[in-house]
Design a protein that fits this description.
This protein is an alpha/beta fold. The protein has nine helices and seven strands, in the order H-E-H-E-H-E-E-H-E-H-H-E-H-H-H-E. Helix 1 crosses helix 2 and helix 5 packs across helix 9. GO terms for molecular function: S-adenosylmethionine-dependent methyltransferase activity.
Length: 248
């Protein structure tokens, strides 16, 4: 998957949605100033940044070397490691909260990843995760345009957790208790079509890889269809994510 990219590029692609999502997600997860949080799949640090503003302690992990380096530079006092959710090199019961923002759908084995998150969370602690909803998430306007031209294209609606109830199924299978699932929505203003479109050409994630797979003519055609649907000027994307939390 295309995530070995400069953090600045990822920020322009997904950070514009991940930053506001982090605020509502940490509230949903019940993170307070006394929390000791593991940020699983931290990316360039959107969730870590917000947790720190709450006064909580944060440890972070991500498989992408550029992202790990970026978080270390941005937050030199945070313990940041390279690794995956499925192989968390932390002690059992080390954290009060283990959080995964926009990560479960990219885990090779989501149940194992969530099981590992539960293992490193102390009894009574919270494991929480959120994933964009397929039809109404941050990337839905892009895939809607793709499907006008390519109805059979596989979008991110098929990824783990991307529809109501799937995160709950994964949490229960991973052994978590008292699982609650809710939808979270953030509104992101795009000042122009170009500001919205250009990051899709960076090759990030399934959407970026799809654009990269197109020849120049097909890419222009997709851009034209998306522009007709969204317009040239200011518009708002209301992005919905599914969020689940459970108790260890």
């Amino acid at each position: 998957m295309g995530f070995a990219v400069p953090p600045e590029a990822y920020g322009r692609f997904m950070g514009r949605y991940a930053d506001p999502l982090a605020e509502v997600f940490t509230t949903f997860a019940g993170v307070g100033a006394d929390a000791d949080v593991l940020d699983v799949g931290c990316g360039p640090g959107a969730l870590t940044a917000h947790v720190l503003t709450l006064g909580a302690a944060v440890t972070a992990i991500d498989p992408s070397p550029p992202f790990v380096d970026a978080v270390r530079e941005r937050f030199p006092d945070v313990d940041v490691r390279r690794g995956t959710a499925e192989e968390l090199a932390y002690d059992t019961g080390e954290f009060t909260h283990a959080l995964a923002q926009l990560v479960v759908h990219f885990m090779r084995d989501p149940v194992r990843g969530l099981t590992q998150m539960a293992r490193v969370t102390r009894p009574g602690g919270t494991v929480a995760a959120c994933v964009w909803d397929g039809p109404t998430g941050a990337l839905a306007p892009f895939w809607d345009a793709v499907h006008v031209l390519d109805p059979e294209a596989q979008d991110e609606a098929l990824l783990s957790g991307a529809h109501r109830g799937h995160l709950t199924e994964l949490f229960v299978t991973a052994g978590l208790q008292n699982v609650v699932e809710e939808s979270l929505t953030v509104d992101v203003v795009h000042p122009s079509f170009e500001e919205w479109w250009e990051p899709y050409t960076f090759g990030i994630g399934p959407a970026g890889e799809y654009v990269k797979s197109l020849d120049a003519t097909a890419r222009r055609e997709l851009e034209t269809v998306a522009r007709k649907r969204l317009g040239d000027g200011r518009f708002i994307v209301s992005a919905t994510a599914w969020a689940a939390r459970g108790t260890v």
